[in-house]
Amino acid sequence: MRDDEDMPQLRLALAQVDACVGDLAGNADLVVEWTRKAVQSGAHLVAFPEMVLTGYPVEDLALRESFAAASRRTLDGLAGRLVDAGCADAVVVVGYLDRDAAGPRNTAAVLHGGRVVARYHKHHLPNYGVFDEFRYFVPGDELPIVRAHGVDVGVVICEDIWQDGGPIAALGEAGVDLVLCVNGSPYERSKDDVRRELVARRAAEAGAPIAYVNLVGGQDELVFDGDSLVMTAGGELLARAPQFVEHLLVLDVDLPAGGHGRDGRVGGFDVRRVVVSEEPLPAYEPLPAPPVAEPLSDEAEVWSALVTGLRDYVQKNGFKSVVLGLSGGIDSAVVAALAVDAVGADAVHGVSMPSQYSSEHSRGDAAELARRTGLHFQVQPIADQVRAFVEQLGLTGLAEENIQARCRGMTLMALSNQHGHLVLATGNKTELAVGYSTIYGDAVGGYAPIKDVPKTLVWQLARWRNAEAEKHGEAPPIPENSITKPPSAELRPGQLDTDSLPDYALLDDVLDDYVEGDRGYADLLEAGFAPELVERVLRMVDLAEYKRRQYPPGPKITFKAFGRDRRLPITNAWREHEVR
């Protein structure tokens, strides 16, 4: 029970859900279903993530008037559906795409009693990394504060808490009892700690608790990890949802409410107070405090992100199965294990495609991985295909090596066409960075699960996944030989990756500074890297841009992934080494 009978109570529910871009009807069903669950749990206030009704990000769909109109119609219909579902008394906050005379808006609507009682248009529009919101949306400067059961609630959207000032500062100046922040915040490594510190700072700035609800699931190259939480103005973490799963976080909050009356122009915003219900709720017995979900380890977090991204890409795009080449090496082994975790062994088809240079141990390691994971396995030798091209075209050297990779790519695409499988490309971020892949060969595919995973992290994940299996009394999915043997493309006799590339640990260090950190030539020398190494690596990275542009999408896990995060011209005469 409460110690202070003057503090209004409120049962809050944060619905951490997996929405699909463009599926207005399905996402509306999702909102109704999870609101009903929240109401059955006794919730008075239910919050959903940013643009949950349309999915996020909608990209150029935001510019289609027909889509914006359909989004608004769906929202208006949703208000009535919630009444029909027995949720009329709940205050429900739903993100959606709006459009008015000024243009498209990233908006959160407050629904109650079958109608929209308030709308908040996102103010801070991110225009960096994977975000292009300044291209799509018009910022808002209206700030509704909704009084529900005597509690004054302000609503902000995602980037609004990542920037200093703005609506949080205005809410603090005007006075609120609770801030709801609805989010579509993509995952990247260690971001959960950054979020927690950020929310704590903004709660202190607002002088009120912040309830932060985030999307979960995969959307093309983005993965959303949930990680919803509630933080007091004093920095106490009251509740935290688990990552990478749909979850309803329900908790009771006692709020020192009342005494707020300022509206009009505050901090550059038009503050308007909307009263839904003035009187506090009668005192009730609160639920036990929900457990605070423990953050995942780094490897568990990355693995969960990759599995989530792959699973949702397969399912949301209507594929029933996936196919990939199994070389016996570490990359294809990790991708196969990810695929089995994501969609189940029965939906995964592995193909060994040996050439005349494929070693017996590589063939055996591929078969052993299939045995351990239970995926479907077949052997399709490519020697005859390769011979036909080599003899007809007179290929030698690199051209002969690459035709092997392209015959494998053709084989996988033929199986995809015949059986409807999604082809998984197995290249990692290090190879993609330096162009160590064959375009239309091992780069072929519809999705690339480890596209943003550096080679050294691939090995780390393999060891972690095997250790997790042993911890649960299961057979490790990845053969030890695939982890420990020197990596090789096996396109010529005795070939090793180190014939063409620096040691992977050293290479990943250089790439981290150059790609993730955008450090220039002089900066890399100052960091202690040898000039010949820096010139060699930077040249490989710069010349491989055309390959990266044609590579399949894959889940983002790092600060700067290839693709939307890093956009460089293909035709580009600039070279860092020219500046000394």
From TrEMBL:
CDD domains: GAT_Gln-NAD-synth, NAD_synthase. Its EC number is 6.3.5.1. Deamido-NAD(+) binds at N402, E431, K547. Residues 10-255 form the CN hydrolase domain. The active site is at E50, K122, C158. Pfam families: CN_hydrolase (PF00795), NAD_synthase (PF02540). SUPFAM superfamilies: Adenine nucleotide alpha hydrolases-like, Carbon-nitrogen hydrolase. It catalyses: deamido-NAD(+) + L-glutamine + ATP + H2O = L-glutamate + AMP + diphosphate + NAD(+) + H(+). L-glutamine binds at Y128, S185, K191. InterPro entries: C-N_Hydrolase, C-N_Hydrolase_sf, Gln-dep_NAD_synthase, NAD/GMP_synthase, NAD_synthase, Nitrilase/CN_hydratase_CS, Rossmann-like_a/b/a_fold. Pathway: Cofactor biosynthesis; NAD(+) biosynthesis; NAD(+) from deamido-NAD(+) (L-Gln route): step 1/1. HAMAP family: NadE_glutamine_dep (MF_02090). Catalyzes the ATP-dependent amidation of deamido-NAD to form NAD. Uses L-glutamine as a nitrogen source. This is Glutamine-dependent NAD(+) synthetase.
